[in-house]
Amino acid sequence: MKKEMLINVSQAEECRIALLEDGILEELYTERTSQNNWVGNIYKGKIVNIEPSIQAAFVDFGVGRNGFLHISDIEPQYFRQAGYDPSEIMDGRRSDDDDGDDQEDGDQDADERGDSQRRQGNRPPRTGKLRSGRPRFKPPIQEIFRRGDEVLVQVIKEGIGTKGPTLSTYISIPGRYLVLMPSLGRVGVSRKIEDEDARRKLKAMMLELNIPKGVGFIVRTAGQERSRKELSRDVAYLLRLWKVLVRRIKNQPGPCDVYEESDIMIRTIRDTFTEDIDSIVVDHPDAFHRAKEFMELVMPRYANRIELYESKEPLFHRYKLESEIAKIHQRVVPLKGGGSIVIDSTEALVAIDVNSGNFRGNEENAEENAYHLNLSAAKEIARQLRLRDLGGVIVNDFIDMRKESHRRRVEKSLRDAMKRDRARTKILRTSPFGLIEMTRQRIRPSFKRSVYEDCPCCRGRGLVKTAESMSIEVSRLLMLACQQQNASRVVVRVHESVASYLNNRKRREIISLEESTGVSIQILPSETQFPEHLELDCRDKDGGLITLPFLSDH
């Protein structure tokens, strides 16, 4: 299988990175200079507000928007100021040595760790002081912080909509093979490395490096089969970086910037490049030289795999990716061999429906047809979730299957297809209604939300009122306007289809209203206005404007 990484930075406003397997787009990452990306950055912030009712604090970390810090994302060392002993607090983290969160997911792992802690620790906190024994929950947040307190935080999730960024005090700094976690205090191995012999070997190798007390390291999956020298080099780099950060923390008052993650190009190469990627193609000389320098510094063995694309034909057009990216935004995704999946997103969840369409299999066995179509759909669903970066609750409505063995195999197929996803996922078993519910880690708005904005005509609904509906609404408003004291003339400006409906089908009603109220009514069409546009101007006999308060809702 041929694997390629294509980096398109020919437009200064946007960087796009595509991962191809045998010419098929499997992963896509985009970042625009106009969109703030704070995930992974570390800040020294100030507590500006505490909400005991939701056990959270709002933190000013110097970017213009306050961040959200939940009790489950507060490191136990902060409990000292509340009179608690951190060693005796159940903090929602696993107690075994191998609880490390693999930073293979780059800026996504901090969120994965935060979500894990939130699931386990988001229960009513114990409010009493330590006297004897071990308290079951964390102390209340109002006992840990006061307004004006300084706190070191890392952004683990971008703000979505009106919500501010999500913060955590569990700091992690990724390297190529390791992750530095100052609060961990020990060595761990990524849970994604499942071979027990490899885990023991890596842990033993790390213990030989004489890591200073008080800091911790997690071996990433990229660190598997690495030499002691390579791991030692990563340890030295991360420790030097941490010392620099500690000086900044001590010398600069908050709120201030302490550490910024690398840009998307360096970050993606660091976190996704593996030995089986045959080439990295970059279409801009400056970006090529930066990527080359990074590879020579971190992975010199593979630095020769970076190529500069010099053709005049745009890189993504050359690989026929532009049409593939355009399909990402389509609602209906066709499946090979027939059938399709339909993807609808709402604010709370994503609904995915599998349709048989023109799928033709064994015409005498509907069960086998449904099974094979569902297998194909499961793989495509996993691919579309990665490409579209959809997160939150996802409900998959597969075609009904009677055999339990078929249901289990479709579940397994979906789980296997999701294994390559760097975002954390959880998949439930098929429900009695034939639905497979799952969650996928959400860090930032989906790819679609970063490219599109709500339509000003339909306001994101995807629908507009019919001419008949608008005409009925206008008629009601005209009745109200004509009843205003001193009203003499009313002018209505609407879309031409609505104006046509009013001037023809409802003309008799309008004439009757004019005769009964003595108010002149004029309907003006406009080709340039959207279908729901409504502008109503009411004047007295002297030409003075009459304010219509009921128009505020329209």
Give a written overview of the molecule.
With 554 residues, this protein is an alpha+beta fold. Strand 5 and strand 6 form a beta hairpin. The chain starts with a strand and ends in a 15-residue tail after the last strand. About 8% of the residues have low confidence.
Short structural summary:
The protein has helices at residues 109-121, 141-144, 196-207, 228-251, 264-272, 285-298, 315-318, 322-328, 366-388, 404-418, 447-451, 467-482, 496-504, 507-517; strands spanning 3-8, 14-21, 24-32, 42-51, 56-60, 66-70, 150-157, 166-168, 173-174, 178-181, 187-189, 216-219, 256-259, 279-282, 306-308, 332-334, 340-345, 349-355, 392-397, 425-427, 435-440, 489-495, 520-526, 534-539. With 554 residues, the protein is an alpha+beta fold.
Question: What is the topology?
Answer:
Elements: E1 3-8, E2 14-21, E3 24-32, E4 42-51, E5 56-60, E6 66-70, H1 109-121, H2 141-144, E7 150-157, E8 166-168, E9 173-174, E10 178-181, E11 187-189, H3 196-207, E12 216-219, H4 228-251, E13 256-259, H5 264-272, E14 279-282, H6 285-298, E15 306-308, H7 315-318, H8 322-328, E16 332-334, E17 340-345, E18 349-355, H9 366-388, E19 392-397, H10 404-418, E20 425-427, E21 435-440, H11 447-451, H12 467-482, E22 489-495, H13 496-504, H14 507-517, E23 520-526, E24 534-539
